[in-house]
Fold each of these.
Amino acid sequence: MNIVDLLKSILFVFNSFFLVYLIVYSTFLFLSSIIGSLILYRNSNYRKLRNELKDDYYVPVSIIVPAYNEELTIIETVKSLLNLHYKLFEIVVVDDGSRDDTSKKLIDYYSMIEIKIPIKKEIECKNILKVYEKIVNNIKIVLIIKENGGKADSLNAGINIASYPYFTCMDADSMLQVDALEKIVKPVLEDSNVIACGGNVRISNGVKLKNGKVVDYHLPNKILDSMQVLEYDRSFLASRILFDQFNGNLIISGAFGLFKKNIVIAAGGYDASTVGEDFELVIKLHVFCRMHKIKYSIKYVSDAVCWSQAPDSFANLFRQRKRWNKGLLQGMIKYKELFLNPKYGMVSFVSFLYFLVYELFSPFIELIGIITVIISFLLNLLNIKFMLMFMGIYIVFNSFLSFSIFLSRLHVENIKLSVYDFWKALLLSIFEITILRFIILTARFSAFIGYNKQKYVWDRVERKKIEYK
């Protein structure tokens, strides 16, 4: 075999792999979207046919809010939490050595008082300097001021001081829907083996909330923000609902999740050495429970909604996705034992493999695929008509799925969409699967460049002031 024939064979193998890669991804997205939509409609109809569970059984919950330089958002975040429909919870704000007026704004607004309490460090964290407290509407607000140690370290500090057996973590730029806490604890009330629940994170850009309820919904004015709305809906509706069917979710978003405190403490808490603490913790819980033969379940609750700001500039989006992929890489390296390991069942052979191929390595696979297509074209080895037809079908198919998922979400949540936003979403679903996808792939790829020097660098996203009505 001469060099030309060898090159042709190599290109054929790569092109074939790339086509199979895209077909498998589209099939997975289609099946997960169908399953996700069916489950959403089933749950929605079930709620209509019966009264919602309303009784005196409530799981006491500590809401931990890590904050670093969040003076623009912290007051509105706490105000939104005080209006939650829930009987027994506390708010624990952890100021991670902010250099702005995050703590001062909170102390002044609520007239908080410094207290002296013994602190038992069940999980290691940086030194806690001061603790403030205030009771507002029978809800305890605790402010922890500590040395800077990062988000994971702040969450560990919050866990050490939290009073209740369950805690939920959320970002300081996010707002919970008024019934979010009530919804996310339901799996715990129904099954004592549930150790963690992930909520549904939706983009708040363009949304008006009043008393924790959506009063006006429209797509954001910025095209970048709108494309992220479609991306988020597809991600949370499709893969997470599907993985939930076999206890296979590997991530609970740091923006909103509920955890059983004693299990998290026993597992060692959050890992402060990673920038993907939410991903790392959930994998750690899977491994810990299986190693110690603890019967457990990790759930996803689609109707427990948290509204969070999305990056509204390409620079911020790039930093966010670069950090996410660094955290993904760190978590998968740390728990590489899950790779094709029968001990972990479908968590290994479906969830871990999916994150490895279609999340972590997707930038490399798609880059190699594009390069081989270009080389094949230059060497006149490419069936151009077939390739254009295939890529056209791929783009239209995936755009239609994204658009359908977006409409399904709005329908189930009884949110009305204007005619303008309908056509805007339809058009942007095409741009989201093409333009935004390649921007995100570039950001993911950059996470590998200079990784050893930057693996502990937290790529911060700029916040904007939020208003809670």
Amino acid sequence: MSNAPFIIGLDGGATKVSGWHIIETKNGFSLGSANSIKTYSDYQTYDSEFTPVDIQTQLNEIKSLISLTDAEKQQGQAFIEAFVETISNLYSGSPLLIGIGMPGLKTDDKRGIAAMANGPRMPTFCDDLEQALSEIGIKLFSLIRRLGSDADYCGFGEEYSKEGLFKSVKNAYYLGGGTGAADALKLNGKLLPFDETKTWLLKSWEMKNMDGVALERFASAGGIQSIYSQYSGLSVASLNTNSIFSDIILERAIQKEEAALKTFSDVSLNLAELLFERIETIYSGWKGRFGLINPNREAPSSNHPYFNIILDRIIVGQRLGTLLEASKGYGVFWEPLVYHIGNLINKSNSIDSKAKTKYVLGDELNPEIIHISSLRDAPALGAGIDALLIYSLK
């Protein structure tokens, strides 16, 4: 068997799976030219009316025995079929090393999904996928070791890709916005999964602003569309029908349409407050700036092991990064965001002068702080990188 496996990274979302051939070079990892995307609804076993099992029931069954419904088994089969076809389209005949990012809470062995808010539970996902691949003659270099999260894999991509923005700094925060919000963190030179910060630093989707609106709404493409829906009076369904997504809404804001301008005014302010909360909490601890989505969640501690760390950079990625880059020079998104962050830092009583001199120059945010990631499909890239790292360490 070859010592250089054919690496595939897969990003399994709520509606589709995207797979890439991952290439390793002396300068780091990158996406190859081979890409395959399959939508679950294209498969016969997919049920467009599928309703997930009540989330509380799912969480209760994690602790005992997961009892899959027939509907879950059928829907899960559509996921497996989409993954198999995606992998098959990338298969070149060489044994595959596969990394997979998936939403949901994972089983104890990390090879299955024990709870998923918007889809079927699939506790034997990797077993089922490996069996299906074997049946059509696809050889694996190694068994799939674990399912990871898209947020963690964004961090892997930024750390190990040749275009990654984590790799050249010691301390950085990453916010990716696509279907949802993805948080990644590097402190003291090491990637720090948010699952390990849960006592003192919350994930973006866990917080809401003082108006009770989830912060994830301001970072995700669908959330931005829903804000525009409210201001424009157009239903989300009609916006989808007419292909009016976040990029078109930005174009309308640049053209000074009132509803679009109001949308990005909200987005700029709330994202600035979210990014400032990251700066503040890492430097001086949780200050209760936001409310909790889950009222039963324990409030974050104001103490943690990383006090007085100043972030070298904040990275914005995925579709949110694309929007931010496209807005530069128009005074619609980029400029208000930078202004608000600088203003929050300048007025802060919890960030001392030492930190302020690093974050702001004069009265404005240091232009070296905010960076926009150019990594395409970062979760798939990170998944493939993780698969190789795990294999190398075994």
Amino acid sequence: MQLLPLNSFLPKKLLLSAVVIVCVYTFSACSSPKSITYFNTLNKDTTLQGFITDTYESKIQKKDVLAITVSSLNKEMDEVFNNAVSDVNETATAGPKPAAGFVVDEKGNILIHMLGSVHVEGLSRNELKQKLQKELLPYMKEPIVGVQYLNHKITVIGFVERPQVITLTGEQMPLLDALVTSGDLKDVAKRDDIMIIREQGDQKQIKHINLQDQSLFSSPWYYLQSNDIVYVMPDKNRSDKDEKRRTLQTTMALIASGVSLLLIIINNFIK
């Protein structure tokens, strides 16, 4: 019986088809994961009730660093006051030179040019502003005082693109703003369990926030406060799936390369 040549069983079209099938299967295994969404419970074109407003006013505490500026109708007095900040700090504190601001000492006081020691602990920024404007009237004409914090911060750690410490110049910051400032959450981050750690006196309060639920907008934790720590945890299930997907991608790529090489060798052999 006459044997048929090997290349009659493996024509070039068949080899090409085999390579194409292997490549298609490989790319299908490497398909990207499903898109990630926020606020899944929100109805389309809806109105939220009980939205949290930005009305919180923090109280000045010991060791706070305050930026205090004065503007009046007397520019010479403005310069005398504003340029005296660094001199006041050098005499008020020991150790490394602090930022250009007024440090609240252990008694809750700051040293103000012309006014001397002023008790500020327990006041809000607006209350301190009003107090200083009143007490500076004998020395300045129509003084306008500005008060800002220099040492207030929020810490964002975990599975975000850029873990960092964010300077908090105002009273508070929306949680979403802090996450966006940190480059948003990574794909493998948990979006239904964001941990916030907050200082309350000598205690630590811990709250878990679900970014996929609209209740975030009515939560008192929607706004972050000074010294809050935001910890974005990994989604273990998603992380495991991604790891398996990457392993499958690598395996299928190696198989595809091996099969393609084998088919090329066979094709050259039977010519």
